Amino acid sequence: MPPDQSHHPDQPRPRARARMDDLTVERVLRVVEAIPEGRVAAYGEVGAIVDVGPRLVGRIMRTWGSGVPWWRVTNASGDHPLLARALPHWEAEGIVVKPNGRGCRMAEFGADLDLLAEAAECACAELADLADLE
Q: Residue 16 and residue 61: Cα distance in Å, rounded?
């Protein structure tokens, strides 16, 4: 069956599986660096800017994220998997833990995604030239 007919027309096309190559890692880390102090972004929001899935963002953060403000990346509900370690950073930046004690309110502390995408585009601009060389 031809590839364009392998899925049901009412279903979205599956996204090509992104590789965890050096360029993708660098783009994710630069987006995280662009999250403003006192704000957070979800794994999926970071991934949408870089065009990868949230799980890949999580893998990249787990492996290479210690040098960037990792405490600013949460799940979609604002919960942080390492809240006890993130808490001193959050307190210093004015991020308040929500009543359930698992994270913060995304509506209150979520980064402006349009501004984040613009900042990430600037931060990743030179990487486009490197991608053309590959």
A: 21
3-state secondary structure of 103: strand
Other beta carbons within 10 angstroms of residue 132's beta carbon come to 7
- The two three-digit tokens of residue 63, written as one number: 């492996």
Listed residue (30, 109, 50) closest to 77, CA to CA = 109
Task: Indicate the average pLDDT of the chain.
Answer: 88
Residue 96 pLDDT > 90:
yes
Yes or no: say if 56 and 18 are a contact pair by the CB < 8 Å rule. yes
Rounded to whole angstroms, the Cα distance separating 54 from 45 reads 8
Helix (H, G, I), strand (E, B) or coil at 130: helix
Separation CA 57–CA 64 (nearest Å): 10
At residue 79, the 3 state secondary structure works out as strand
Give me 72's structure tokens.
């600013």
Distances (CA, A) of 100 to 32, 74, 79, 84, 115: 25, 15, 9, 14, 29
